[in-house]
């Protein structure tokens, strides 16, 4: 393999990891207890993303007024195509790769 071909698989900057995850399933944790799992189609320098075949999980916490116990509730929905605004993203986890 020549040096010109190697940079496509080398991670030197954080966005390299995102670039290598294009057309693969990623996990995105959002503000306000939202989690997304879907195929990454596009992204930009602001971490705006377009995801396809998305499963969104929304976790809410309610406090029981009698026992003051926290009750966690999860709601899931499927979305065919989703635009994700980058300022709501907490983390992006790429698929597991051998050797990393």
What layout of secondary structure does this protein have?
Blueprint: H1 14-19, E1 25-30, E2 34-43, E3 49-63, E4 70-84, E5 89-93
What tags apply to this protein structure?
mainly beta; 1 helix; 51% strand; elongated
Describe, in plain words, how this protein is organized in 3D.
It is a single chain. The radius of gyration is 17 Å and the shape is elongated. The chain contains 1 helix and 5 strands, in the order H-E-E-E-E-E. A 5-stranded antiparallel β-sheet has the order 4-3-2-1-5, with no helix packed on it. The chain is 6% helix and 51% strand. The chain has one helix at 14-19, and strands spanning 25-30, 34-43, 49-63, 70-84, 89-93.
Helix content: under 10%
> What order do the helices and strands follow?
HEEEEE
Separate helix tally:
1
Query: Span from first to last CA?
Result: 20 Å
List how many beta strands DSSP finds: 5
Low-pLDDT parts are 1-6
Class per helix and strand makeup = mainly beta
Mean pLDDT: 88
Which percent band covers the strand fraction? over 45%
The value of Rg in angstroms is 17 Å
Described by its quaternary structure, the protein is single chain
**Strands side by side in the biggest sheet:** 4-3-2-1-5
Dominant shape = elongated
Largest sheet: 5 strands, antiparallel
Brief synopsis:
With 100 residues, the chain is mostly beta strands.
């Amino acid at each position: 393999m020549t040096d010109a071909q190697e940079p496509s698989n080398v991670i030197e900057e954080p966005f390299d990891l995102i670039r290598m995850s294009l057309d693969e399933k990623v996990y995105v944790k959002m503000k306000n207890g939202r989690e997304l799992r879907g195929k990454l189609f596009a992204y930009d320098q602001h971490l705006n993303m377009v995801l396809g075949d998305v499963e969104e999980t929304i976790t809410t916490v309610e406090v029981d007024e009698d026992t003051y116990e926290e009750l966690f509730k999860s709601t899931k929905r499927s979305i065919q195509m989703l635009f994700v605004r980058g300022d709501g993203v907490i983390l992006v986890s790429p698929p597991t790769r051998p050797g990393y």
